[in-house]
Amino acid sequence: MINEIIFMKGYGLYVWAAFSFTLISFATLYTLIKINLVKEQNKFSTKFGLLDKEKFKVAQIQSTHREILANRISSKI
Amino acid sequence: MFKLFEPNKIFSINSRITKYILFLFIIVLSIGLVEALFLSPEDYIQSHSVRIMYVHVPSAWIALGIFSLIALLSVISFIFKNKNFSIIAKSLAPSGFVFNIIALITGSIWGKPTWGTWWVWDARITSMLILLFFYAMYILAWRIFNEREKVAKITSIIAILGVINVPIIKFSVDWWSTLHQNSSINILSESTIHPSMLLPLLMMTAAFLLFSLLIFLMKYNTELIKIKNKGLDRL
Known about the structure:
The complex is a heterodimer.
Chain A: H1 2-7, H2 12-50, H3 53-61, H4 63-76
Helix pairs in contact in A: 2-4
Chain B: H1 7-39, H2 53-80, H3 83-115, H4 123-144, H5 148-163, H6 165-175, H7 195-234
Helix pairs in contact in B: 1-7, 2-3, 2-5, 2-7, 3-4, 3-7, 4-5, 4-6
C-alpha cells in the first residue's frame, strides 16, 4: 500500500516532483511577500516614531496609519 | 463606482481578512491534495502520471486569468487615469508569474513520462513561455522605472501587448498540430473528464485561487504602506 503511494507504478518520481515543486514555490512566494510586508510595516512605524509632536498629531488622524501600526504589533505577536 | 476601490477601504478590509483566507487556503489545499494524490483514480492510458494534471492545469488557468485581469485593469487605469487600478494590477503580477512558472515546470515533468521528452517547441508550450516573458517584463518595468506616470504607461502597454498572446495560448491546440491534447473541460459544451477526476481538479483550482488572492492582498497592503511611507516623508 505505502509502496504503491510512493512509487505509483514507476510514475512516483514525476508526480512527487511536480507536487513538491508547486508547494515549495508557494512557500517561497508567501515568505518573500510576508518579509516585504513586515519590512515596510517596520519602516513605517520607525518613521512614525521619529515624527515631531505636530506632525505626529496630523499623521495619527488617518485611520490607515493607525491600522498599519496596529497590524505591525499583531504581526510581531 | 471607483469609490468602491478606494485604497484606504481596501486596506482596512485586507488587514482583517488575510488570516482567514490563509486558514481557508490550508484547509482547501489539504482536501485537494488528498483527493488528487490518493483518492482520485489513475488514468487507463497515462496511469498515475495523470495526477500531475491537478497542479499543472489550475496553474495554467490562473496564470492566464491573472494576466487577462492585469490587462483589463491596465486599460481601465489608462483610460480613467486611476492610479489605484495600476497598483491592483501590480499586486496581481507576482502570483501570476509564479503560477506561470509552475505550469511550465510541471508540464515539463509531465511531458517526460507521457511524450518521452522534457520540452518541445510546440505552440502551446512556446506561447506559455512567451507569457512568462511578458510577466517578467511587466514586473521588471515596475522595478526599473521610478516615475509614477511613466511606469503606469509602460506597464499598461506591456500588459495590453501581452494579452494578445492569451487567445493564442487558448486556441493553439486547435489552430496548430501540437503534442497537447484538446481541452477536456468546456463551459459551453459537455466536458469529457470523469467527475471522479473533475472534483479534485476543481478543489485544487479553488485552493490555488485562494492562494493567489492571499498573495494579492499581502502585496497590495505592502504597496499601500510604501505609499504611506512616502507620505510621512512629505509631512
